[in-house]
Amino acid sequence: MASLTTQASRALARSSPALRLPAAAARAACLSTSSAVQGSSASSSFESPFKGESAYTKVPDFSKYMSKGPASRNQLFGYFMVGTLGAISAAGAKATIQEFLKNMSASADVLAMAKVEVDLNAIPEGKNVIIKWRGKPVFIRHRTAEEIEEANKVNVASLRDPQSDEERVKKPEWLVMLGVCTHLGCVPIGEAGDYGGWFCPCHGSHYDISGRIRKGPAPLNLEIPAYDFPEEDKLVIG
Length: 238
Ligand code: FES
Known about the structure:
With 238 residues, the protein is α+β, with helices and mostly antiparallel strands. Helix content is 38%, strand content 20%. The chain has a domain at 122-237: Rieske [2Fe-2S] iron-sulphur domain (Rieske Iron-sulfur Protein), CATH 2.102.10.10. The protein is built from six helices and ten strands, in the order H-H-H-H-E-E-E-H-H-E-E-E-E-E-E-E. The N and C termini lie far apart (144 Å). 15% of the residues are buried. Residues 1-6 and 15-42 have low confidence and may be disordered.
């Protein structure tokens, strides 16, 4: 009888939903947790993990570095620093640009080459001298009174490159010009040619005693460089 009662109670227990509670309860708890998470994520906002302190992050206290003075004093200090640093930066930039320009400009030896000084006492009347200036020959002629007169007698209007002798010289006795033929750049020969001046043997150009083209293919007179007479017997070319 007793065993019958036990068997009946076990069968009842298997069929009863209350006895299956642990599995159902776990499933229900899981569902309720997920719905709670969903609800909370919909309503919450992002919060920085770096805010505040934790065992691993500690924000230092900077309060002791903060100025205790009035705001106007801090502003004054700020203006002073900006002004000072600006002035220092401007001075640095100026020095840098000055150095750059100094390095870019011609050096002293190049500048010295740019001008050539000639002692005119060394050139007798009626003679030619050829000097080198900036890699080009320069003819210097100490002209005689007859040569000056001859140069002035020419009818300027009849010339291919009309120029009076006066326009080509600073002192009538000194004719200074580049020794480069204006045709194709040969160096003419002095005291030669049909006009008693210079003759270019390359293609037969004749220049007169003022260096003006008179015959041959050259289109222009011999070029006059920049020159000056700083002293009575000194010529500076360049
Ligand atoms: S280069 Fe002098 S005449 Fe041609």
